[in-house]
Write a structure and sequence with these properties.
heterotrimer, A: mainly alpha, 6 helices, 0% strand, disordered C terminus, B: mainly alpha, Helix Hairpins, 3 helices
Chain lengths: 175, 104, 508
């Protein structure tokens, strides 16, 4: 066991434990905080696996943007109460069964994966220079096309999120 | 240099995937369901990076797929938040079980 | 390729039209940027490549469109019609200049083939008919008319990507570009509870299935070492298949079943199609679904064709279940809109047959089926939006009040049920013919025929209500001469599909 092994197992335990915290805690705010911790642990994994740039992006985008958005929404709607009712036992069992089946299938599949030696030649392969070069040559089309996706998301946020002035908001409760 | 093989990393990613699916199926809070989806996406990301590193470290295909997943997940999350805000304005709840005006 | 760029730019244009036509001076100032870029790329294209020339053209069009956004917002629908005609012309032009050889673009990201171009053209045609029929009703949904049209263009952009992707990354991005506008359109009727709910359900299911799709792609990547769907063929061998690959294919099947609403992953479909504004349901259930189907079949017929022994039985079971659930549940529906939602599940069952067929036939038949189904369904929805009450009773006596509406609705329903002389009959004939070539799939064909017979029951219930029951249906809006002409044209297309199908088949 060297340093990397120990680090890997610590990060793994942290990731899985915090992920369990996300789905098991009753309070949505706690879930968000657990999820942020999970993202940090996963970023640690990325660092171990030589994907330095992605580790940073993961933290900036997920922990920095998406999770802050979630927190903001939860606080805006004042939903930090623990009051979420649980689903029935049947649903829980169904959840465990279906998730567990997929888990077993995946586990069986990945067990067979080639357990090759780690390639030590290119430890800086995930650095930003290499990524940037490829991004603007080989991956230029997906890079440009994903801008369409962002435009769509922008339009969507405006079309759905914006209040419409001529109708009274908040007064139309369930009929 | 170290003993961590591909299967250990894949095990972690499988566990996260399972937790995400379990959370998606059992939670009733829309925000938590979204968080479960993010967990699933992250488990996929780990997979991509692990395959990229252990099987063909000289290429960067897996890293790029992860990069695009992260960006697209951000776009999806913004749409999701808009949908949830709109729903909250109409229903005053984010519990999916209460959002059921349509019955068979 | 041109089509993708065109659709994107038109969408952006409409978005700008919606957002900021007041800010004219700002736009005039901004439009200098694309003008300069256009000039730069044009100069470099002399020494550079074909791609530079495309880019130059893109920026040139963008400049023009930016300047055009300074016209007023209320012209959005007219502008959309004009842009759609331009898009159709662009598609036809692309087929004309294409020389029947697969063309690889942008470092093998796209592979444009005759079949993709033909699918693009027919689906653009269906979308054009949709825009012409539903134009007025789209404007009634909400305040953001220009944005709705731009989202429709973005959906088409996703469709063009899905018809020509050569890399799983492009497939993923294409599916996202196809789906995200659909989530938004489903929720566009903001003050309607059902619409918000539909949008939420669609989003949650869509995001979940995307997660599963990505897991499938990741596992496949582990087994095949590539994202290129052509290189993948050489990496996967049927007799020594990696368990990773089998699991990956299984996950991809599950995810696509969600996207095309095949049983047992169809649960979201009725609620979403019922809750979304009717005009947008018409688009989602036809063009959106067909694009997902085309991507599904493209992947499985290009990459996994030689592995078919591993997945063909799963697909056969899914087909069987989809046909059964779609048709049987549709019989018990009280609302025509919900019945059409279930019927779209049933039709998805027939489209899955194209996946089971042998190679050239499968692609051929999905293109034809998608066209016939899309046009008939769009027509039926166009009739539906005119009527206020969506239950069967709401259609009582429609033949007396609006004879033409009832007549065209009958033709559309005939086509959906697969009565001879309509497009639906030829479509069903082609998909079933493709599977007949497999000797051992005969049971499935017989089952499909039985289910088609059941489907006649619920389609004819609408016709019975219109012609043989008394009542005076309330109309949502006046049926103008324009509507009548457009409906008759649509009707003619449906009949042409049935009478001269070779005209709509992939040439060559």
């Amino acid at each position: 066991m060297d340093f990397y092994d120990i680090l890997f197992w610590i990060l793994s335990v942290m990731a899985v434990g915090c992920a369990l915290g996300v789905v098991l805690s009753r309070n949505p705010i706690h879930s968000v905080i657990f999820l942020i911790l999970t993202f940090f642990a996963i970023s640690g994994h990325y660092l171990i696996m030589n994907a330095q740039f992605l580790a940073i992006v993961n933290i900036i985008v997920y922990a920095g943007a998406i999770m802050v958005l979630f927190l903001y929404i939860l606080m805006l709607m004042n939903l930090n109460a623990d009051a979420e009712p649980q689903k029935g036992l049947l649903v829980q069992i169904a959840g465990i069964l279906s998730g567990g089946t997929l888990f077993l299938v995946l586990l069986a599949a990945t067990k067979s994966a080639h357990n090759e030696e780690i390639n030590k030649v290119s430890t800086n392969v995930g650095l930003i220079t290499n990524l940037g070069k490829l991004l603007f040559t080989k991956y230029v089309l997906p890079f440009e096309i994903s801008s369409v996706l962002f435009l769509t998301a922008m339009i969507g946020a405006i079309v759905i999120g914006k209040k419409e002035p001529q109708l009274k908001n908040g007064e139309e409760h369930i009929a | 240099m170290n003993e961590i093989g591909l299967s250990q990393v894949l095990f972690v990613s499988c566990a996260l995937f399972f937790i995400g699916i379990y959370g998606f199926l059992t939670r009733r809070n829309m925000i938590t369901m979204l968080m479960s989806v993010e967990l699933i996406l992250n488990s996929v990301n780990i997979n991509f990076i692990a395959f990229n590193k252990y099987l063909f470290a000289h290429k960067l295909d897996g890293l790029f797929f992860t990069l695009f997943i992260i960006t697209i997940a951000a776009a999806e999350a913004s749409v999701a938040i808009a949908i949830i805000i709109n729903l909250y304005r109409n229903y005053h709840t984010i519990d999916v079980e209460e959002v059921d005006t349509m019955k068979f | 390729m041109n089509a993708i760029i065109e659709a994107t730019i038109y969408g952006v244009f409409l978005m700008l039209l919606g957002l900021m036509w007041q800010e004219r001076k700002l736009i005039w100032a901004i439009s200098i940027i694309p003008a300069c870029l256009s000039g730069y790329f044009f100069i470099t294209s002399a020494a550079g490549t074909h791609e530079h020339e495309i880019t130059a053209r893109v920026f040139f069009i963008l400049t023009q469109l930016l300047l055009a956004t300074t016209i007023e917002r209320k012209y959005a629908s007219i502008v959309t019609k004009v842009l759609f005609i331009a898009l159709l012309v662009g598609n036809i032009y692309e087929i004309k200049i294409h020389n029947n050889v697969p063309e690889l673009l942008f470092n093998n990201m796209l592979r444009i083939e005759p079949s993709s171009l033909w699918f693009n053209l027919l689906m653009t045609g269906a979308a054009f008919i949709y825009i012409m029929l539903m134009n007025k009703d789209i404007q009634k949904v909400g305040n953001y008319v220009a944005e709705y049209f731009s989202l429709i263009f973005f959906i088409l952009c996703g469709l063009y990507l899905l018809s020509s992707y050569n890399n799983l990354l492009m497939m993923f991005i294409g599916i996202e570009i196809l789906s995200i506008p659909q989530y938004i359109l489903a929720g566009s009727d903001k003050h309607n509870l059902k619409s918000s709910e539909a949008s939420l359900k669609y989003f949650l299911m869509g995001a979940f299935s995307t997660g599963i799709l990505l897991m499938g792609i990741a596992l496949l990547y582990g087994a095949a070492h590539t994202f290129n769907i052509m290189e993948m063929v050489g990496m996967l061998h049927s007799n020594a298949l990696d368990p990773l690959a089998i699991t990956g294919i299984l996950f991809i099947i599950i995810a696509f079943s969600f996207k095309v609403s095949a049983a047992p992953m169809h649960m979201w479909t009725p609620d979403v199609y019922d809750g979304a504004p009717t005009v947008f349901t018409a688009f989602m259930a036809t063009v959106g679904k067909s694009a997902a189907f085309f991507a599904f079949i493209r992947l499985f017929h290009f990459s996994f064709y030689d592995l078919s022994e591993h997945w063909i039985l799963i697909i056969a079971c899914i087909t069987c279940a989809t046909l059964f659930i779609g048709n049987i549940t549709a019989v018990f529906q009280q609302s025509i809109k919900r019945m059409l939602a279930y019927s779209s599940i049933a039709q998805a069952g027939f489209m899955l047959f194209a996946l089971l067929a042998y190679r050239p036939m499968g692609m051929q038949s999905i293109i034809f089926y998608a066209t016939a189904y899309s046009i008939a369904t769009i027509g039926m929805f166009a009739v539906l939006v005119k009527v206020k009450d969506y239950t069967y009773d709401g259609f009582n006596g429609l033949a007396k009040k609006e004879p033409l509406l009832a007549f065209v609705a009958t033709i559309f329903l005939f086509s959906l049920a697969g009565i001879p002389l309509t497009g639906g009959f030829m479509a069903k004939y082609f998909v079933l013919l493709g599977v007949m070539q497999h000797g051992d799939m005969l049971w499935l064909v017989l089952f499909a025929l039985l289910m088609a017979a059941i489907s006649v029951f619920y389609y004819f219930r609408v016709i019975m209500a219109m012609y043989f029951k008394q009542g005076s249906p309330e109309m949502n809006s006046q049926v103008t001469l324009y509507d009548k002409v457009m409906l008759l044209v649509t009707c003619l297309v449906v009949l042409l599909l049935g009478i001269v199908p070779q005209f709509f088949m992939l040439p060559g």
